[in-house]
Design brief:
Helix 8 packs across helix 10. This protein has a 5-stranded mixed beta sheet with strand order 1-2-5-4-3, sandwiched between helices. The N terminus and C terminus are likely disordered. With 388 residues, the protein is α+β, with helices and mostly antiparallel strands. It has 14 helices and 7 strands. The chain folds into 2 domains: 163 residues, 2-Layer Sandwich (Beta Polymerase, domain 2), CATH 3.30.460; 167 residues, Orthogonal Bundle (Poly(a)-polymerase, middle domain), CATH 1.10.1410.10. The radius of gyration is 22 Å and the shape is globular.
């Protein structure tokens, strides 16, 4: 049976990404147009998708060497949900390797997952399909991952049968179609947090899935208002809600209900349909941000220990952005959040030579498989590998 090329969502066209007829409606705020331009400038192009696809394909081949032909590599996270920029990291999961429920890992499953990641890391170094700059196994993360940075400046996190990831990405992808302002607001806030160094859950920051749920909760509040279609108004409303009005000690985010609910109510309802909520047994849970996973009922923001700091940045950004937009000057108000020109500047990606064996090319063409097996020269090895 021919191998199937790993699938990525099709790169969005400008009209699929934004409704151009409404984006440039003069009745919308000037900030709306600034946000629309920013979203267009940071969107991945077809070259980005091709680079990602090559990496996924090579990692899938290495996975099948280690785990057998049943192994499949699937993207999730921002790449699969539609919230990617050209600077986005790749989130990948190797499926059909070990049985793991969407609720998390048992100790035995965690041990098998970590062992599987070490085996895969070793095989990737041996094959040299992916030209690796750095590599690190992180065994004690909530989901054990293999972090890789390639010499082509692609950063990726690889996990083993994290079943919740692809399901969550599909959920967000569907929700983004329902709420036109959600994707632009998400991309601006993600960039804002990344520039502050507050986008990594491992360091107490706010992860992309939790942020997407928060933005969707704000969209529920904006129903029937001008902010339902105006990106600028929606952005200001998000910063105001989560920077000033949202009390994360007493309130939580719950998309299953009305978006924002008392934390106590969310916890009580969750205990009725899941056995072990993520906040169960935590003495400090009342001080933690609570964003409920609408698919599992777990708290997906429990590790965001720096949310108090993040909330302060949201509050400051709301005040500065509102003042800047009220000036009416011919400047981009998004510059109060980050340096727009620097963020949209695409880094130079080296055009590394690739080759494909003629025999394999002919075999792939006979089976109808897309020729994507692009091997790096053997001289290009791994300059730094750290397995810890």
């Amino acid at each position: 049976m021919a191998l199937q090329s790993p699938r990525l969502p099709k790169p969005p066209t400008s009209r699929a990404t934004l409704d151009l007829d409404s984006v440039y409606d003069h009745a919308l705020s000037p900030l709306h147009h600034n946000v629309a331009d920013f979203v267009r400038d940071v969107a991945p192009n077809r070259r980005d998708y091709l680079r990602w696809r090559r990496v996924i394909f090579d990692i899938e081949n290495a996975s099948r060497d280690v785990f057998g032909r049943r192994a499949r590599v699937r993207p999730f996270g921002s790449i699969a949900s539609g919230l990617a920029t050209f600077r986005s990291d790749l989130d990948l999961v190797v499926c059909d390797v070990i049985g793991v429920t969407s609720g998390g890992y048992t100790p035995a499953q965690r041990a098998r997952a970590v062992q599987a990641l070490y085996r895969l890391a070793k095989r990737l170094v041996q094959r040299r399909d992916v030209v690796i700059e750095t590599m690190q196994v992180i065994p004690m993360a909530r989901v054990p991952i293999l972090k890789i940075v390639t010499q082509d400046a692609i950063s990726l996190d690889l996990s083993v049968h994290n079943a919740a990831g692809p399901l969550a990405a599909e959920f967000i992808r569907k929700k983004l179609k329902e709420y036109p302002t959600a994707r632009p607001v998400c991309l601006v806030i993600k960039t804002f947090l990344k520039e502050l160094g507050l986008n990594e859950v491992a360091s107490g920051g706010l992860g992309g899935y939790a942020l997407a749920n928060m933005v969707l909760a704000q969209c529920l509040e904006d129903k029937g208002t001008p902010a339902e279609e105006d990106y600028g108004e929606a952005l200001l409303n998000f910063l105001e809600l989560f920077g000033t009005r949202f009390d994360y000690v007493r309130q939580g985010v719950c998309l299953r209900r009305d978006g924002i609910l008392p934390k106590k109510q969310i916890e009580e309802e969750a205990r009725k349909w899941i056995f072990n909520p993520a906040w169960e047994g935590r003495t400090d849970r009342k001080k933690r941000l609570l964003v409920e996973d609408p698919l599992t009922g777990l708290n997906i923001s429990g590790a965001s220990s720096r949310y108090g700091e993040i909330r302060g940045h949201f509050s400051r950004a709301y005040g500065e952005l509102k003042r800047e937009t009220e000036k009416g000057e011919n400047v981009n108000p998004l510059n109060v959040l980050f340096d727009v020109a620097e963020v949209i500047r695409r880094p130079e990606v080296p055009n590394r030579p690739h080759r494909i064996h003629t025999a394999r090319r002919r075999r792939l063409e006979r089976t109808g498989e897309t020729v994507m097996r692009l091997r790096a020269p053997h001289a290009m090895g791994c300059s730094a590998v750290r397995l810890c």
